[in-house]
Amino acid sequence: MDTAEKPSPTAYVDLVLATVGFALTFWAWNLIAPLSGVYKDRLGLSSFEQSLLVAVPVLVGSLGRIPVGALTDRYGARLMFPLVSALTIVPVLLLIPAKHSYGAMLAVGFLLGLGGTTFAIGVPLVNSWFPPAHRGFAIGVFGMGMGGVALSGYLTPRMAKHSENLPFYVVAIALAVYAVIAAVLLRDRPDRPVPTASLAHRLALAGRLRVTWELSALYAIGFGGIVAFGVYLPTYLKTWYGLSPTDAGTKAAGFALLTVIFRPIGGWLSDRVHPAVVTSVALGFVAFWAIVQAFDPPLAPGGTLALLCMAAGLGTASGSVFALVAQVTPQPQVGSVTGIVGAAGGLGGFVPPLVMGAVYSAKGSYSIGFMLLSDLALAGCVYAYGRMRNIRAGGEPAGRPPAPAKA
Q1: What pLDDT band is residue 308 in, cutting at 50, 70 and 90?
Q2: What are the pLDDT digits (tens) for 341-362?
């Protein structure tokens, strides 16, 4: 595709459909977190058990992106998006009978992880339709679908106040409607390369690229930070600052909304400045504000400012990292690499809630957790600037001859 080519109308239709589907499935994926305080009180959970309940869908959704991304390379988003959206309805409705048993909630949370895999469907779809000059911004717009976390944080507890099961019915109906619309309107690019090798072989090829693991590490910090805050911030605000569940959910939704706004900004900047430079600056910004929050400032104004600045930095970094994925990954492998990188991002969000819960249970403070975040963000800042600026298509440093192609 020529870099001067303009995106077609179909490209924009697919972008809108993919973004909406991403948002709805992410809302489903995050249904447990806004109600975790209710489940903690009802089931008598410890802080660690509550964190585990919230983290299980994150873990499964993250690992599931690896096969789902590879399957999207093979079968296309037109099949995968409606299919995954429809299947996610099952665990959403199972949350209703499972609410009185911790074991049942963990099992349903495992199945709910399916909703978190759609990221690996949308990225290769959008990447195939948009030319390089527009790709960073387009993937950033698609990434706004992670605003489903903000939707969940804001709407789920409010719906539950009216009727305990209302959020699950609403999300299930929305997913069913979307699955039908996507099946009718979504289109794969006709000339997209379709791999013929086996799933295991394609994943192995993607895993052999050094850049896959470098991008995974950066995305684990950027997007992992967003996921971690999305699932644990209500608990943190409720526990440390004494907010009510509704107030905590509202503020957490504001945090998530800011990450959504800054994600396409990160992609847009990456169309104009090297995405590695954008990533480096954004992560350095996160590191500074994480240190500020580690000193436990009052929520108004210091804590609010620190958290919102971290949201802006993490949103920018998550957008710029995937602009980098689009820049350095061969088109036939975008789904497979996206699956691995997306899994790393989700796994980056799995560990912090467990660490925060365990540290708070042991020390009665969250400061250690924020200092660890600042250390990781600073390491990513240095690596992105020092190494990733020199990567070109295929994952090799600039100036090095390309590696021979392997069958």
Answers
A1: very high
A2: 878 877 777 677 777 777 777 7
Instruction: Say which residue, 256 or 116, is predicted with more confidence.
Output: 116
Gap between the Cα atoms of 15 and 21, Å rounded: 10
Instruction: Label residue 402 by pLDDT band (50, 70, 90).
Output: very low
In the chain, the percentage of residues whose pLDDT exceeds 70 is 93
Supply the pLDDT for residue 331: 66
pLDDT at 4: 52
